[in-house]
């Protein structure tokens, strides 16, 4: 991954969160998880110039890295872009004068790949809605990478904007099915099946993965369920994923280095909160020392997300613990971004101690509190990984 794309990430893209208008969240069509992530990244990249430019560009390989799949997989990217052009966004809202406004537009008016660059555009009417600062939710792109289900990410997007009110309000089931992309399916017309296959799994993943906790409630007419709403509260165990992470980080030297590199204030504070000063400083040292990387912000983002590139992660083999860590990181580097995300999720699910979980959230695979557990985990994942390494792996 030494040849991260040549183009620098835009100021908006470095922000790390995207303003999603309520009208853009309510989209018809069966968006896949990859298409939802792609839609968020494209909107973030274009946000600052939505009203001043008719089209927007992003390096295709940077785009692939940011949504977490093989940067050479252009066929998958083409299919996902085609899906966004074919997907319809619909809004029904009051304008500034209290008049009802209904509109419909494709999510993207066009998209093309040429010379390693992805160019795309929004219709003028949809761009205006996407840029409206009055009604929006902040979608954390670092957090969206943690989702493995498109239904769960869709539910999160549609619920998070109500976190301050504590409830989504009642949604007719027909609307809910459309928001989840399962309208028109006879199978999901039966609430029992909708609940078992869509609602329960999506709520479970949102509650486990994100910074909010959802509790569904239903309303019946006779014996039939006709409406659903979700009660919402903040998830204190995953508050680290919140964007509003205080002012203190701005006074440290690592924050200053990030800003000098071109990282936005918001994303710099997010990275320091999520990874800690020591890890970010080590990754900065690594990235700044590389001569063949033009987009250093993009490479730093990939390094922090992928757990590679820290100088201390390449210790002298004479130390058994250091040698085990070196081998673990070699295995991790060989895995795809999607696999690495799944590995982190699987390991984190095994941590029942709050301190251990917090340390892993902060330091990743270099978590000192979980060193023995990490070694045992990767020995299970790759039998024989430490066969000729000195010293015991240690207890789980």
Automatic annotation (TrEMBL):
So what family is this one in? Answer: Belongs to the initiator RepB protein family.
**Superkingdom, according to UniProt?**
Bacteria
Q: Name one Pfam family in it.
A: Rep3_N
Q: Name one GO molecular function term.
A: DNA-directed DNA polymerase activity
Single GO biological process annotation from the record: DNA replication initiation
Q: Where is the Initiator Rep protein WH1 domain?
A: 18-159
Q: SUPFAM superfamilies given for it?
A: Winged helix' DNA-binding domain
Protein name, per record: Replication initiation protein
């Amino acid at each position: 991954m030494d040849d991260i794309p040549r183009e620098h990430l835009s100021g908006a893209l470095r922000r790390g969160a995207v303003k999603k208008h309520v009208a853009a969240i309510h989209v018809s069509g069966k968006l896949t998880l990859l298409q939802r992530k792609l839609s968020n990244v494209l909107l973030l990249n274009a946000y600052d110039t939505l009203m001043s430019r008719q089209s927007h560009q992003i390096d295709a390989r940077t785009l692939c890295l940011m949504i977490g799949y093989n940067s050479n997989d252009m066929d998958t990217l083409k299919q996902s872009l085609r899906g966004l052009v074919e997907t319809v966004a619909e809004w029904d809202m009051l304008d500034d004068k209290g008049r009802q406004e209904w509109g419909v537009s494709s999510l993207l008016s066009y998209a093309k790949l040429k010379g390693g660059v992805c160019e795309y555009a929004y219709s003028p009417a949809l761009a205006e809605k996407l840029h409206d600062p009055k009604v929006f939710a902040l979608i954390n792109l670092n957090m969206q990478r943690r989702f493995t289900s498109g239904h769960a990410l869709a539910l999160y997007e549609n619920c998070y904007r109500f976190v301050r009110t504590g409830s989504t309000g009642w949604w007719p089931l027909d609307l809910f099915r459309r928001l989840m992309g399962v309208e028109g399916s006879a199978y999901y017309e039966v609430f029992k099946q909708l609940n078992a296959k869509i609602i329960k799994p999506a709520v479970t993943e949102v509650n486990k993965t994100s910074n909010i906790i959802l509790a569904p409630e239903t309303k019946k007419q006779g014996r039939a369920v006709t409406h659903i709403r979700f009660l919402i509260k903040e998830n204190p165990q995953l508050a680290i994923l919140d964007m509003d992470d205080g002012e203190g980080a701005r006074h440290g030297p690592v924050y200053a280095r990030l800003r000098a590199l071109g990282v936005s204030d918001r994303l710099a504070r997010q990275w320091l909160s999520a990874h800690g000063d020591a890890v970010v400083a080590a990754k900065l040292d690594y990235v700044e020392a590389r001569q063949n990387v033009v987009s250093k912000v993009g490479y730093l983002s990939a390094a922090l997300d992928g757990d590679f590139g820290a100088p201390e992660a390449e210790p002298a083999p004479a130390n058994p613990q250091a040698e085990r860590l070196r081998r673990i990181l070699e295995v991790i580097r060989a895995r795809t971004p999607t696999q690495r995300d799944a590995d982190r999720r699987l390991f984190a699910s095994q941590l029942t101690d709050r301190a251990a979980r917090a340390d892993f959230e902060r330091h990743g695979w270099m978590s000192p509190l979980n060193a023995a557990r990490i070694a045992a985990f990767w020995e299970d994942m790759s039998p024989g990984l430490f066969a000729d390494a000195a010293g015991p792996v240690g207890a789980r």
